[in-house]
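Researcher: Here's a chain I'd like modeled. Treat it as a single chain, no partners, no ligands.
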Amino acid sequence: MSRIKSLLFLLALAAQGSLASATVTYVVGTCKNSNNTITSITQALQTAPRPNVVEVCPGYYVEQVVITFPVTVEGISDGSTPDVNIEPPSSGLVTTTTDSGIPIAAQVWVDNAGGEVNLTNLNVIGSGYLPSNAHYAGVLYQNTPGTMNHMVSVAHVGNGFGVGVWLQGGSATPSVTLENSFIAEADTAALAAETNSSTSELSVTIKGNSMNPGANNTETLYGIALFGGLTAAISDNLITGGPTAMWIESGSEGTISKNTIDGYNEDGAAIILKSDDMSVTGNTIEGNGEGVGIAVDSSVAPVTDNTIRFEDQGIDFVCIAGNNVHSNTIMGSNYGIIDVPASAVSANTYYSVEVSRQGGC
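Model: Modeled as a single isolated chain. C-alpha cells:
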C-alpha cells in the first residue's frame, strides 16, 4: 500500500511540474475564436494565470500597455486584414521617471520585468494624446532585456520631446535588441538609449532597421542618440532625415558599422562622435552638398573605411582627432577633412574634393 501511495505521490508531483512548465497563451480579439472575451492587451496581461505569450488580432487598441513580467506580445497577421495598432487613450498616459530624472509617458511601457519581454509585429502610433510636461515615447524599456522585431513606431511628435523607442539600463544590466523595424516622425530622436551610470549597464543591438525621424518636416534632433553608460552594436540600418543621424556621448562603447545615412539637414552632421570607446567603420554617408559627414571629438576612437559623398565637409577633426581617423573615402565635397591638428597623420582617399585637408587648429 505504501508503494502505491508513493507512486501516486510521484505522479502528482510530475503532473504539477508539467503544469508549471506549460506555456500559457492568450489571444486578444476574435480572429481565432469568435467567442473570445479578451478584448484588450491589458486585459490579457492581467488575466490569471499569467501568460507567457499574448497573441493580438489585427485592429486598433486604444490603451497604454504596461508590462511588468517576462512575456512575448506578438501581432497576428494574415496579410489581408489591418495591422495591430496601439494608440494612446484620450484619458492620457501614466508617466514614469528615468534614473536621470526625466519624466516619460510611454504608450508601451516595459517596467523592470525581471526577464525577457519580446515584442513582435506591432504598430505603435502616437496620435491623440501629447503630454505637455514629459517626454513622449512609443516604446520604453526600463531595466529589462528583450527583443523588438518587425515593430513600427510613428508619429511621436507635437510637444518637442517625442522619442520612438527609448531604452534605459540599470542594475539588471539588460540586453535589448531592436531589429527589422521602422521608426518615423519623432520630435527628439527615433531611438534614445541611456543609463545613469559611469560604467555600462545596458547592451543594445540595433540592426537592420529603417529610421526616418524627420518625416513630415518635424524638427527632429537625432536618428539614434546614445547618452552613455552602455555598450552598443549598431549595424546595417538606414537613417534618413533630421539634422544628426547619430549622436554618441562619452560613456558609450561598442561599434557603429555598415549603416547607410542619407538626406539629413544641412545644419548638422551625420555622425557626432564624442566617445573614445566607439568605433565608426564601414558606413556610407550620402549628403546634399551641405553639412558634415562625421564630427570626431576623440583622439583615439577608430574612424575608418567610411564612404562620404556630397558633403560640404567630409570629416571634422574638431582640432582633437588625429591618427585615429584614416582610410576613409570622401567624394564630391568642398573640403575633405577640416580642423585637423598639424601633427595628425590621416591617409584618406579623395575624389572630386576641392580642398583635401584644412588645418586651422
